[in-house]
Write a sequence for this structure.
């Protein structure tokens, strides 16, 4: 049995820098990911969106490899999200279970596909966590609005929250391939079936939609907050204009009385 362990280390990993320092045998690389052989039937997969996945790598070696990449991690997490999966080889047929998969032959592309899906799953855990934090912040402001009839957030902070929400949506769209199979699966029926089965096992598409819907709720609420703030500022400006006109009228009346 081959254990697969995937870790969300940081917001992102500098793929170019990691490629320059790792000396393992590199089998696949592009601007977003690196796939290495680290030993006999052991592999490491590094992703730009902050995830590192290991297959059949000893628990003693994993922290050493992670430390090599830490200087190239942006916004490293103190508590890493992780996911564990298992691969049984030399099976009589392909079969997916809750936390394991049985495969007939442990060829490299099949293992890479499995590691990719496990990594997408742990990335979704991270994005779900970030979305829930934004939803909690949104709920706080909506409850305050309901209770006090006004908002307790400034225009600048509101713009920051809208920007954070849009950035998270963009990162998800850029980094996750939830609805698309990898190019290698298009030409291999077994890879294609395995990819579809893994997506169902990890419930990737449904979790992805939930995150997208959550972020849309946050965005819609903060857009409404922005409109309320603009209305409040508009009212304030109208009162300032009224007061200025009133002061001018009073000045004219005083001038006429004295004249």
């Amino acid at each position: 049995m081959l254990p697969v362990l995937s870790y969300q280390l940081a917001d992102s990993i500098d793929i170019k820098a990691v490629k320059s320092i790792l000396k393992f045998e590199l089998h696949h690389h592009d601007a977003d990911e690196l796939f290495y052989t680290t030993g006999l039937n052991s592999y490491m997969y590094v992703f730009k969106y902050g995830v590192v996945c290991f297959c059949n790598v000893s628990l003693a070696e994993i922290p050493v490899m992670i430390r090599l990449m830490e200087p190239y991690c942006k916004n490293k997490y103190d508590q890493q999200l992780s996911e564990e999966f298992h691969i049984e080889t030399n099976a009589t047929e392909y079969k997916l279970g809750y936390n394991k998969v049985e495969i007939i032959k442990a060829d490299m592309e099949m293992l890479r596909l499995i590691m990719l899906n496990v990594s997408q799953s742990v990335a979704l855990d991270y994005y779900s966590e970030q979305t829930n934090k934004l939803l909690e912040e949104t709920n706080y402001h909506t409850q305050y609005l309901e209770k006090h009839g006004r908002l307790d957030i400034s225009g600048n902070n509101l713009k920051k929250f809208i920007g954070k929400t849009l950035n998270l949506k963009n990162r998800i769209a850029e980094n996750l391939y939830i609805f698309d199979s990898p190019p290698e699966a298009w030409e291999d029926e077994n890879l294609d079936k395995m990819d579809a089965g893994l997506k169902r096992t990890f419930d990737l598409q449904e979790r992805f939609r939930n995150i997208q819907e959550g972020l849309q709720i946050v965005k819609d609420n903060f857009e409404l907050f922005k409109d309320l703030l603009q209305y409040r500022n508009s009212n304030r400006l109208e009162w300032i204009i009224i007061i200025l006109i009133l002061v001018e009228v009073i000045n004219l009346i005083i001038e006429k009385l004295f004249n």
